[in-house]
Design brief:
This protein is mainly alpha-helical. Helices cover 78% and strands 3% of the residues.
Length: 272
């Protein structure tokens, strides 16, 4: 009873429930960034390894986030400036965000280049499919999740003082990612235009991380509003293509009329 009164007292107040719902929603929304990257990354693996890589990567990310929450005092200390440059005091959090943003921009740029020029496999996001190991994919998932984890935990500290709420929000968000990773990856794989849109999202998110680390805060609401609008437009384009395709019918190949005339030629000669 004392444990409940100490750690879960927020459940007895409307303010506590409101804080928990808001933090859970924030963690789920922030997980969209990571989920897009995971889906694109694991789709480069052989088909029989993709689901396992997603489960292992996301599960390991959950363990890492819980460990970071246990070291909350250290995480909060990362906001203390360690040096000043260009009139801005850079903290370890800023450096982590800048490094993560550069990593994300580089990876997304490499994959865009490979998508535009598929013959050149040297610039693939993780190399050619046959050379990709599950360990390399999971390592990159954890590397990027570390960046998002530090940012989301520091944001969570500003929203609530209850550590239990942070644990609940992280567990719920990771569970949603685990459930949604398969359908999202399958959807991205089946729709090539979605891949390019998702890579554009990663570029935008990477640049936002860099700007945030440099001291230029961009409200995340603007970012997700832009992503939502772009996704809506692409959804309408996909719907238009699907409705237009059955009406067009199968396209005739250039050789079909000539083949038909040659096939009818012997019959005409026989009647003559």
């Amino acid at each position: 009873m004392d444990f409940f009164a100490t750690h879960f007292v927020f459940l007895t107040t409307p303010e506590g429930w409101a804080a928990m719902v808001a933090l859970v929603a924030m963690e789920v929304v922030l997980g969209i960034d990571n989920l897009i990257f995971i889906s694109i990354l694991t789709n480069k693996l052989p088909a029989h390894q993709r689901a396992k890589a997603r489960r292992l990567g996301i599960s390991a990310a959950l363990v890492m986030r819980l460990i970071l929450l246990a070291a909350l005092a250290w995480i909060v200390g990362l906001t203390t400036p360690v040096f000043t440059a260009f009139g801005h005091g850079f903290s370890w959090r800023d450096l982590i965000l800048i490094a993560g943003g550069l990593f994300l921009v580089w990876k997304a740029t490499k994959e865009i280049h490979h998508t535009v020029d598929p013959v050149d496999h040297k610039d693939d996001i993780v190399g050619q499919t046959i050379n990709v190991s599950m360990g390399a994919a999971i390592f990159q998932i954890l590397l990027l999740d570390l960046v998002f984890s530090v940012d989301s935990i520091i944001t969570a500290v500003g929203m609530t003082e209850h550590l239990a709420i942070m644990y609940i929000a992280v567990i719920v968000a990771i569970s949603v990612m685990l459930l949604a990773s398969g359908p999202v990856a399958a959807f991205i794989e089946k729709n090539p235009t979605i891949v390019m849109l998702a890579l554009g999202f990663l570029l935008m998110i990477g640049m936002t991380l860099i700007a945030d680390g440099m001291g230029f805060h961009v409200p995340k609401g603007y970012i997700y509003a832009a992503m939502g609008f772009s996704a809506l437009v692409e959804g309408l384009n996909m719907l238009a293509r699907r409705r237009k395709a059955p009406d067009e019918g199968p396209a005739e190949t250039p050789g079909e009329p000539l083949a038909d005339s040659l096939a009818e030629a012997p019959a005409l000669d026989a009647r003559d």
